[in-house]
Amino acid sequence: MADDHTKHRKWFFGVVFLLALSGAISAVKIVKELPGYNRELPFYLETGYIGVGDMEESQLFYYFVESQRSPGQDPIMLWLTGGLGCSVLSAFFYGNGPVEFNYGGYNGSLPTLHLNPYTWTTGLSIIYVDAPVGTGFSYSTTAENYAVDDYKSSEQTYEFLRKWLMKHPQYLENILYIGGDTYSGIPHPMMVEKILNGDELISLTIIACRSSNSELSADIVYHCGRLLQGYVLGNPKTDDYIDDNSRVPFAHRMTLISNELYKDAKEACKGDYVNINASSADCLTYIDEIDDMLVDIDVMQILEPLCKTASSRPVESMKGNRRSLEDYKGFLAAQAKPAYWCREYNYVLSDIWANNKDVRAALGVRKETKGVWMRCNGTLDYTKNVPSTVPCHRNLTKSALRALIYSGDHDLSVTHIGTQNWISSLNLTVYSDWRPWFIDGQIAGYTVEYINNDFTLDYATVKGAGHVAQEYKPKECYEMIDRWLAYYPV
Questions:
Q1: Are 341 and 305 in contact (CB under 8 A)?
Q2: Which CATH number belongs to the domain containing residue 136 in this structure?
Q3: Residue 215's pLDDT is what?
Q4: Which residues, in sequence order, are bridge partners of residue 449?
Q5: Is pLDDT above 90 for 16?
Q6: Mean pLDDT of 425-448
Q7: N or C: fewer beta carbons within 10 Å in the chain?
Q8: Quick check: pTM over 0.90?
Q9: Are residues 272 and 306 in the same domain?
Q10: pLDDT tens digits, one per residue of 367-415
Q11: What's the rounded Cα separation, in Å, for the pair 260 and 139?
């Protein structure tokens, strides 16, 4: 046992030394104050870069928020925002992060911030990562490394996690979860598989446990060998066909199309609304009619107004806080006349905030590495070459992991019907049947629990939520994740 211990310790410190030489162990920024928040932050915020890929030419930027309860004991979660190409600041400001923007009375200056009462970091440490490279403040030193696909994205995030844990050995004994939303439903399950199939994280965890335990009992080895305990996915893109094919049935259930049109389309298309045979003139005709019915519907949340995408214009100099109010006239008009409000207007403030020079300095963003910051980068050189991660989920059902999958029930872009369909294809056993779950005595959604030996999967809908759920229903999603992490029924 002693020889084995010595061997692992030599291996660990050797790896750390090599990483230090290569630049992976670089300085981090402890952020105590954020521009827009008028006092010292009441939580621990760290930012930094982790180099991944050949010669670490791709630098992934992260924000680490430590649990505000018991960081040494609370779980830790790596979180990605989908999009594709959306910065993780979307989650940080509009989802489960610790702060939010103040919208009332905005006049075009640097946006101000307030604490999010429903942040998930109340009892959970979260590593927010701008991935893949090219999103947010992540960058590459070579043009060719901006070309990423689903496999490379998963590999790089896996590499990021390994290096981050080596850089933060104090968290090696914490329970780990992998989380994300929307397009994260593609790379995340692939990465979870990589963690289960690899031994790097397991080895590091056993070393950490041995440093505090002279004797390694079977129970200790079991606990220390299970750093990863589960994954969480919200409104997840999972299968090109299943997700897209569910939109027509969803539109019918929500009375966006008539019974007659749905019946005709279902018969003519034989239930396949994706692989439309050009020779089926009737099917094409009905699909065109359905498109006409949905063209003015906001697919992110079907009850909200459909608006043109709002964002601040590219800033040429980023000197000071001066902005032309003309750039934000839609946002400003929305405050004066609530009827003009669109959710997209809220996103304008993140553009203004992240493109401010004082903000970048406070976050430790490296100069000359990023031009205009965009909340969602639509110009990524990204190849979608994994059409489905259902096989990944099927493999994961053979493990002892826990999974939480949830959907906003008014999301037309990735519908709850499609998500339930691919979950059903896993052929799991229903442990707790479909039932409502409650917040403050009111139904917050519906949930069902599945099992397969030691694997468990909780699926939940969030009533009235869109894409993604926590942006629309923050209190409900906070209660949901808090219960699930505590092993309570949702």
A1: yes
A2: 3.40.50.1820
A3: 42
A4: 432, 458
A5: no
A6: 98
A7: N
A8: no
A9: no
A10: 999 999 999 998 999 999 999 999 999 999 999 999 999 999 999 999 9
A11: 51
* Helix, strand, coil percentages in the chain from 3-state DSSP, rounded to 5: 40, 20, 40
Domain of 409, in residue numbers: 1-256+297-490
Question: Does the N-terminal peptide bond of residue 457 adopt cis geometry, omega within 30 degrees of 0?
Answer: no
Mean pLDDT, to the nearest integer, of 211-228? 46
Task: For residue 447, report the phi and psi dihedrals to the nearest 5 degrees.
Answer: -145, 155
Residues 251, 272 share a domain: no
- Among 102-106, 209-213, 277-281, 361-365, the range scoring the smallest mean pLDDT is 209-213
Do residues 233 and 185 lie in contact, with contact meaning Cβ atoms separated by under 8 Å? yes
User: What tokens were used for 55?
Assistant: 């010669």
Confidence of residue 41 (pLDDT cuts 50, 70, 90): very high
Averaged pLDDT score across all residues of the chain: 86
Euclidean distance between CA atoms 311 and 378, whole angstroms: 13
Selection from 227, 171, 221, 232 nearest residue 202 by Cα: 227
The residue whose two tokens read 């909200």 is 304
What value, to the nearest 5°, has the Cα angle with vertex 122 and ends 49 and 168?
A: 35
* Joined tokens for residue 115: 């604490």
- The answer to whether 465 and 409 are in contact (CB under 8 A) is yes
pLDDT of amino acid 330: 54
Let me know: does 92 contact 63? Beta carbons within 8 Å: yes
Quote the crossing angle between the two packed helices 2-22 and 150-167, to the nearest 10°: 110
Same domain, 342 and 290: no
Say yes or no: 217 and 268 in one domain: no
Asked whether residue 365 falls in the same domain as residue 417, the answer is yes
Between CA 445 and CA 460 the distance in angstroms is 7
Q: Could you read off the pLDDT of 303-320 as tens digits, one per residue? A: 999 886 554 433 333 233
For residue 469, give the H/E element and its range. helix 469-472
CA distance 128 to 96: 10
- The letter for the amino acid at 240 is D
Torsion of CA 108, 112, 116, 120, to 10 degrees: 90
What is the pLDDT confidence band of residue 25, given thresholds at 50, 70 and 90? Answer: very low
Q: What is the mean pLDDT of residues 252-265?
A: 98
E strand intervals along 38-185: 45-52, 58-65, 76-80, 99-101, 113-115, 125-129, 139-140, 148-149, 176-181
CA–CA separation, 453 and 460 (whole Å): 21
Is residue 224 a contact partner of residue 256, using CB atoms and an 8 Å limit?
no
- Token readout for 125 is 């440490």
User: Under a CB-based contact definition with an 8 Å cutoff, are residues 318 and 371 in contact?
Assistant: no
Can you read off the two tokens belonging to residue 152? 């490379």
Please provide the DSSP assignment of 152-169 as one string: HHHHHHHHHHHHHHHH-G
